[in-house]
Design a protein that fits this description.
single chain, Metal Binding Protein, Guanine Nucleotide Exchange Factor, Chain A, DUF427_sf, DUF427, DUF427 domain-containing protein
């Protein structure tokens, strides 16, 4: 990365569960953990481990110069709760087809 900014991605052997309002939104034994300078550690879960049927696509998009353009999904009571990088930058290509939640339970 540039100017001392660093991103590392590795497979985690931890079990990650995402629960909102008592409902399990995602559960995975194969998350990726992304560590980025100045940001909290984030778990990216494979799309097949996420209850996409419960999420609604959002009109929100954000741009990160290191990861690319993020798309977001919402719940009726939680806007932009989930994001993903459909076309991530090559340096972080592993997060393609993975989704990230703001709040996760790591077991």
């Amino acid at each position: 990365m540039t100017n001392g900014h660093r991103i590392t991605i590795e497979r985690s052997g931890r079990h990650v569960r995402v629960v909102h309002g008592g409902q399990v939104l995602a559960e995975s034994d194969q998350p990726l953990v992304l560590r980025e300078t100045g940001c909290p550690e984030r778990y990216y879960l494979p799309a097949e481990d996420v209850r996409l049927d419960l999420l609604m696509p959002s009109d929100t998009h954000t741009y990160c110069p290191f990861k690319g353009t993020a798309s977001y999904w919402s719940l009726p009571d939680a806007a932009d709760l989930v994001w993903a990088y459909p076309e991530p930058k090559p340096d972080v290509g592993e997060i393609k087809d993975h989704l990230c939640f703001y709040e996760v339970e790591v077991l």
